[in-house]
Amino acid sequence: MTMAEHDPRILAPQETDFDVETLIVGAGACGMVAALAAHDAGQEVLVVEADSLPSGSTALSAGLVPAAGTRFQAQLGIADTARTFARDIQSKAKHENDADLVEALANGAAAAIEWLADRYGFPFSVVSDFDYPGHSQRRMHGLPSRSGRELIDRLRATCEAEGIDIICNRRVTTLYADGKRITGAAATRGDGGEEKIGCERLILACNGFGGNRRLVAAHMPQISGALWFGHDGNRGEAVGWAAGLGAATRHLGAYQGHGNVAHPHGILITWAVITSGGVQVNSDGKRFWDESQGYSEAARHVLAQPGGIAWAIFDSRIAAIARQFADFKDAEAQGAVKTADTLDLLAEQCHLDLGTLAQTINAIPNPGTDAFGRQFEGPGLAPPYCAVKVTGALFHTQGGLDVAPNGQVRALDGTLFPNLYAAGGAACGVSGSGDSGYLSGNGLLSAVVLGRAAGLG
Fold this sequence. Notes:
It comes from Roseibium aquae. This protein is an alpha/beta fold. The protein has helices at residues 3-6, 29-40, 71-74, 82-92, 99-120, 148-161, 213-219, 237-245, 272-275, 295-303, 316-322, 326-333, 343-350, 354-362, 442-456, and strands spanning 9-11, 18-25, 45-48, 65-66, 125-126, 140-142, 165-167, 170-178, 181-189, 194-204, 227-228, 249-250, 255-262, 267-268, 279-281, 309-315, 337-340, 368-369, 375-376, 385-397, 400-401, 408-410, 416-422.
């Protein structure tokens, strides 16, 4: 089928093939969390997914959800509060976020994590051996493999165990609306046929528009040439439906980038290799920015270097920390991580200037503040040394439909649609208006917490 046949449309109500109480578009983490919450609330739920298997952008991530004040933190002696979390979110985004939405996500995160743990047995634990930029406390919660694939697989298995129907190979192309009330949707099957589904409530969990190059170029031209590292199914249907419905959108120029994707392997290298004391150098062997700002901003800085590439430089101590992430172990298995006993040997492997790399690494103050304003606390890098060739990538968009704290969609006139909800990447998140406002975990924060709120209604 052509893209034109997939363009999102709004039509008047039509006779449907069947009806459900709550219809959810998208079976990523957001859609499946929303489905579990709606099911828990006693609603009849149907999830439709365009792919042959639930996946979404979550499967490409580390699967980490930030939450403050959980018992998992308390077990480690971490004193954290939702108020502190909200302050961190707003500080990173220069207070550009909707304050009510920030408060709702910060307050709802611990309850969402503990609900998944207690109700469904998700074995969450806190990443406790390194810090993420912008977080004043260690509050990133993940499953044992530190992999988004594990999170998606557990959510899918849980939905199946609960008897929640997830129908795949169905791309929703059309919404039926009577004014502000949504009456149903049409889903196109893989064979080209169409199914018309009536609903009392619709939740858009179809993520953002990072896979739509036209929309990316229009709203975030500075990253339009970057590697797209999200899910190709993120085509921006929610934004298209918003235009047809008269729904408000916000911060469409916001996105999460990542400047540490192994090249050409296309494997995410955890930012722990940087926050634990590593640095990035360009092809001349020189550092070029303050890496402590965050991995989203890193995409822009890396892409501005010759060839749009850089090298992440760290050591074996840091590599041991990074191995808790399945992606890093995959990168090692594929030969993306180079190791050497001296900086000169490492420079030779990476085709960097021998003397320049050694001069760059030896100039790092431990402890102290460097010329870029980055503060190092030590220990310094020591042999054996490690390096990964990386590039910048677009992970997912952070702007979207303007929503109330429960996920209910706002119209252009400020009123709420009575039965239309959006969450995750389909909704405007809490990352401000660009890339520098992204606080680690903001994507899954919106997917899990706002997805649960939308499911509960």
